[in-house]
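## retry 2 of 3
previous attempt timed out at serialization; input unchanged, resubmitting
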Amino acid sequence: MSLNIAAVIPAAGLSSRMGRFKPLLPLPGGTVLSRCVRLFRESGVERVVAVTGKRAEAVAACVMEAGGIAVHNPAFEQGMYASVLTGVRALPPETDGFFMLPADIPLVRPQTVRRLLEIFARETPSVLYPRFLGERGHPPLIAAKAIPAILDHHAVHGGKGGLRAVLEGLESAALDVDVADLGTVHDLDHPEDYEFALAVADAGYPLEDECCALWAMQGTSDHIIGHCRAVARVAAALCERLNARFSERPGAVRLDPGLALGAALTHDIGKGTKRHEAAGAELLRDHGFSRAADIVADHFDLSQADDVPITEREAVFLADKLVRCDRAVPLEGRYLEKAEMYRHEEGAEEAILGRLTRARVLMARFDREMGEPAERVAAEALA
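## retry succeeded, writing output
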């Protein structure tokens, strides 16, 4: 039987530290608040309650346009707990659990919410927290049985300690689930936090800390991590060299070193499985990193027509072929060593040499478009 899960989004704050009204600040795809509402709606949560306070009419319009329900907290100046109470009181009696997400935490990915929903239905904890690199984040998924305690805490203790104090009383039956989602711990307290959100919203690739979380979750070995870090440095260097000659390369596209880094840092995350490139790509898609997944899926073998622009995909592919372990190596040596290793397996040597031919063609194109040898760029990046 499916559970009836709702979400509460307190959006009644004063935004005093930001200096601008946070809920209505623009972000890709809408506003800070509309992203929070759509996060849950797109994850299958039907009842999304946003609590308004300051600029109530404008906030309510934003909420309803995004598919949520707006309820007003006339006591919004009394603090967050008053908005928590307003939101909880608006939940229907058949609610089995609810997410709690302050409106200034807009970068959580739908894949994280879906993972929490799946585990909550299976494990039925009192509270389920997303955990990023050991730090609990938002949104916690709270069982409906906590609602009486939330209401009583206001009546008996005046809300002292806020929702955190209530949840601490439920700790014995709480669970944590590890996620590779920096958005769970990134709130918009200050202008620089908002600028960061503008830069990374919907990036489609993991940031370095998210790569670290993925490695930890997968039990990735230090050897593979060292190799991925080296490949990332080379891929970033290749992108920088190509971008430096952007105006001299007809039909070229400007490359995103961040995308190349995120994909390179995770390109071997599926190592140890059959067709590790496909396994790694699937893992990345499961966590919401679709752009990086497309690159990882192609890093084993690749060919590129001359009339198609070089992208981050080709940069990561070539970087991987110019690194053995964590050191720069000539392209020929990388492939010929493999050919020798597998020469007794039928068809293996021929397949490896075919991949070498395709890699040679691609590297020659990099050499031309950068105006210097890719092998030298790799050696300098890892010197």
